[in-house]
Amino acid sequence: MSHAAAKTASPAGRTRDPFLLLAVPSLLLLGMLFALPIAFLLLKSFRDADGALSVAGYIAFFSDPYMLTALRRTIVIAFETTLLTLVLGYPTAFALARARGFVQTCILIAMILPLSVGVIVKAFAWSIVFRSDGVINKTLLGLGIIDEPLRLLFTETALVIGAANIFLPFMVLPIYAVIRQINPNLGPAAATLGAGPFFRFFRVTLPLTLPGVVAGAAFVFSMAVSMYVIPNLIVGERSQMLSMLIARSFLYLRDEQMGSTMSAVLLVIAAMIVIASSIILKRLSGRQA
Amino acid sequence: MTLTDRIATTVSWLIALFACIYLLTPLIITVIVSFTSSTVYTLPPPDWSLRWYESMARKPDLLAALWLSVNLAVISTVVALVVGTLASLAIVRGRFRGREALATFTVSPLMMPGLVIGVALLQFFRELGLRDAYWSLLLAHIVITLPYVVRTLVAALEKFDFSLIDAAQTLGLPYPKAILKVLVPGLAPAFLTSGMFAFLASMDNYPISIFLTDAWNKTLPIKMLQYLEEAPDPTIAAISTGLIALALVALIVGSRTVGLNRMIQ
Predict the structure, then answer these.
(1) Which of residues 175-234 of B touch A (CB under 8 A)?
(2) A57-288 falls under which CATH superfamily?
(3) Cβ–Cβ pairs < 8 A, chains A and B
(4) For labelling, which of A53, A98, A161, B191 has a CA lying 20 to 30 Å from the CA of B8?
(5) Per-domain residue ranges of chain A
(6) ipTM of this predicted complex?
(7) What is the mean pLDDT of each run of 10 residues along chain B (265 residues)?
(8) Which fold would CATH assign to domain B59-233?
(9) Angle at A284 between CA A282 and CA A285, to 5 degrees
């Protein structure tokens, strides 16, 4: 007994970090309420109706053309949404970093205020805009550009415009955070050394802002690939995304086998994004160090 | 500045201007619609009225949903602030192996599809025999809010100068008091912003909550979507305009006390 007590008091025992204790409540909470339920769900996707191990769910998923179309549509829409937020967000982040005083406050409020308004409200507002008697059609008709109302609502274009609107701040803010850390003299220094504007952008500015771009793109893509409320309000049943099929199979069809399989597929996509972005970010920071 | 530089700068300003208008469009539409006299969402409204604000008071189930959402958001945010701060201290100050893995793990619910977390919790709670909707929702909302706190507090603690605590002790403050007088005020902006984002995330959550509600416990987003599908009149716009006004006030207070730039770090 005394031997064991002596052992815990030895230097090897003392290296156990007391700070580890502070992490215990979080680990317990997230272990019980996040990791375990998800592990349980993954396990369930590998079982058939009788509880025997099987990959029947995955075979059913990947051999169903309807599911494959939904999967491809989900990824394409998430990709287009990410691209649109990047095209708009990258220059905006630069303008935000260059702005001072009142103008900067205005841009920051335009970024943060929409975050405080629910996704449902914003998606619904977009569905008003895209209606056949909505603002866009009325304006175009009034200007004589079109003769009859365009069908905008229920299209994937409308969905990408609405989704990119909701996720844009999550692209701008990480890029802005990175730009603020760049030494402002680097550009002029490169110019003094004879670098042209394109060389400066591609060899100085872009590599330095890449960590922000990767972080923003990963976040927007992972949110867009699993969005549910926005497509529900803007495209409805017309073009199903994976998340809508998951909700339908659990809430209405009670087909939990297929629902679990689809959830596992969506989870793998999201996990791949997280892992890929963290590997890329580590590489980028290693290169700069 | 060369001509190319000037063109690039101008273009970035124009895109920023467009992005700001684009971002505010749904908010402006909501505010305009809330003051319409019409029962449908015609734009521009035929006439102005406050009838949808009056109708808000006659919708007790919407108000009950608002109350449930505020209740869940406040409690889960407070729990997340306490538990999340402890975890962040462990991540930043600890010297044990796996600190990076711990940081990734505690923030990861943010990047995982909400719908999948909701489905997983639904099956898990059912297996455990937990059938109480309120408790299921509350536990789920702690999972929603915790990552926001850890993300912000890890960043804040990494910038915090811990030698200040030693200095306070040298000057005669006992350790608990040094923490209370030096560390807590230093982290106040981080508490405020992470608390705000956690609160908003909880208030706005639909994909996780939808799997855990019952007929008596419906959160505001669930009730709102149901309402929009059943009887879409501009009452929802009136409620949202109220929430936008509240958020604007919170932002102005935030910009005066913490500064908008610190709020988004």
Answers:
(1) 197, 200, 203-204, 206-207, 210-211, 220-221, 224-225, 228
(2) MetI-like (1.10.3720.10)
(3) 279
(4) A161
(5) 17-46, 57-288
(6) 0.86
(7) 82 94 92 83 77 82 90 97 95 88 90 92 91 94 95 90 89 88 87 89 92 91 88 81 84 77 70
(8) MetI-like fold (1.10.3720)
(9) 65
